[in-house]
């Protein structure tokens, strides 16, 4: 679906060191391409990414002109992001294990009790909502 841009000069793509950015936003064209690859419509992307439909259309037009290059770059970005996530997840797990070895202080014990109580309350509320 094409949208006729009332002021096509208002929104444009800005080439930057982090990739092509959509003007008047913090979104890259890669964000829109990834959402488009998941099958989201122009309006869904607009709502999910806090963009105007015109900004999304400008990104769609740019993607159409540069799809092959952008897809290769997005695939590389996603590989790097996955590796980075694994790295930081491993660090977080190491820290959780280190914390588990520490002696239980009265403050930590109270915190654990509060967390358990809140979890139980959330689960109870969720179960109650499902029955209604």
Account of the protein in words:
By secondary structure, the protein is mostly helical. It folds into two domains: 1-101, no CATH class; 103-132. The chain contains four helices and two strands. It has helices spanning 29-37, 42-49, 53-101, 106-131, and strands at 13-16, 19-22. A two-stranded antiparallel sheet has the order 1-2. A hairpin with a 2-residue loop joins strand 1 and strand 2 (19-22). The mean pLDDT is 91.
What descriptive keywords fit this protein?
132 residues; mainly alpha; 2 domains; 4 helices; 70% helix; elongated
Percent strand: 5-15%
**Average pLDDT for all residues:** 91
Which percent bin holds the helix content? 55-70%
- Largest sheet: spatial strand order: 1-2
Task: Count every helix, treating DSSP H or I runs of 4 or more residues as helices.
Answer: 4
Rounded to the nearest angstrom, the radius of gyration is 22 Å
- Inertia-based shape: elongated
* Sheet of most strands: 2 strands, antiparallel
Secondary structure blueprint with pairings:
Blueprint: E1 13-16, E2 19-22, H1 29-37, H2 42-49, H3 53-101, H4 106-131
Antiparallel strand pairs: 1-2
